[in-house]
Design goal:
The chain has 8 helices and 3 strands; from the N terminus they run H-E-H-H-E-H-E-H-H-H-H. By secondary structure, the chain is mainly alpha-helical. It has a single domain, classed as TIM Barrel. The chain has a 3-stranded parallel β-sheet, with helices on one face.
Length: 142
């Protein structure tokens, strides 16, 4: 997408994409797209830090760890769903307790999530069309 945009003299101001501890291991936006966006000075909007709560079902990572990992990446902002007051308070806690993670902390977290992440089973937006409204409404394509 970025190559085609470049070939047609189109520049994105911002790109929104899933960035999380599981993404780092499977069809990774963090590894394949994020460096290019940073290099090109395009704002990065990180989303799906908990994979629509699916990542938490792996039982290998806690919500605050998910948020801190996403906040540690070179993003312009991290977007998190806030469907209740406890989740809002969780977001406030993540912001107030965040400090940049060391390479060792990142490595330990990625080592802990690696096995669960290898097949993409906790990132359904990559492995199913469950979250693909266009697939569910092909008439939108004309």
């Amino acid at each position: 997408m970025l190559e085609v945009a470049n070939q047609n003299n189109f520049r994105f101001d911002a790109v929104q994409m899933p960035l999380n501890v599981m993404d780092a291991h499977f069809r990774s936006f963090e590894r394949q797209v994020l460096p290019r966006l940073v290099e090109d000075g395009i704002a990065v909007l990180g989303m799906k830090s908990m994979g629509d709560q699916n990542i938490l079902k792996s039982n290998v990572v806690k919500p605050i760890e998910c948020l801190h990992y996403a906040m540690n990446l070179p993003t312009s902002t991290v977007i998190t769903g806030i469907e209740s007051m406890p989740i809002l308070n969780q977001a406030f806690e993540a912001v107030s307790t965040f400090t940049p993670m060391s390479q060792e902390q990142v490595r330990a977290l990625l080592n802990r999530t690696r096995q669960a992440a290898l097949k993409g089973q906790y990132e359904l937006f990559k492995t199913t069309n469950q979250f693909d409204s266009t697939a569910k409404n092909p008439e939108w394509l004309g």
